[in-house]
Amino acid sequence: MSTLWFHKYQGTGNDFLIGDNRSGLYTNLTAPQIQRLCDRRFGIGADGLILLESEADKDFSMRYFNADGHPGSFCGNGARCITQFAHYAGIAKDEYIFSAVDGDHRSRRDQDGTVSVLMQSVTTLLSHDDAVFVDTGSPHLVVAVEDLDNTAVEEVGRSIRNSDRYREKGININFVQRTDDPGTIRVRTYERGVENETYSCGTGAVAAALVFAADREGEQLICVQTRGGDLLVRFAKEKARYSAIWLCGPALFIFETTLDPQQF
What we know:
Layout: E1 4-11, E2 14-20, H1 31-38, E3 48-53, E4 60-66, H2 76-88, E5 95-100, E6 103-109, E7 114-118, E8 126-128, E9 131-135, E10 139-144, H3 153-161, E11 172-178, E12 184-191, E13 196-198, H4 202-212, E14 218-226, E15 229-238, E16 241-250, E17 252-259
Parallel strand pairs: 2-3, 4-5, 10-11, 12-14
Antiparallel strand pairs: 1-2, 1-17, 3-4, 5-6, 6-7, 7-16, 8-9, 9-10, 11-12, 12-13, 14-15, 15-16
């Protein structure tokens, strides 16, 4: 394996390393190498690694790895970041169709800098003790709290994630506080694979927004305030079905560098 280019992007503080794997240069990266690349002390540092790959009849394919080096489920903020990277990498479009681990998605780049991704429809919200489970491409628990700032996200999140019920497959935990604005919620997320709190989680923001609006019908627009910035979640609700779910927000280039993964 030779020296590889890595580009770093972030979406509301959720940061990713991205590589252009259309020629197969990144295919042999091992889990320990990816883990080292994502380490914030011994590598570049990121919440995950994303590879842009070719796929017939699609603009590109997205392959995502958690910071622990293992393949992950769908990543909403990562999808928005790889959309921005695809444009940089020569797939010069404003709207895309791409594939990910949970199926096909659409994404778009707006002139105001917003990058949006269309999520899969959701039909099931399940009560899990004092929380609500929802799969938005990744499995999430949504837990309502009264004082988000003083919630021990890392401690409580790790305890739930490693409980008997969730230890094997893992779970992401979103702690959600309502605000005085009926269209705005605040969210902090403990992510599996990172095994810590992240500044933002796109699929978690969507999960929290769906649960927050579970008693409403019709078109919805929810502002989700995360530690890294605001995300907008648009969707339509009809009875138990949530469709046309768009996750919207910034996706920004940070820097690029080259490394030989075998040398560290």
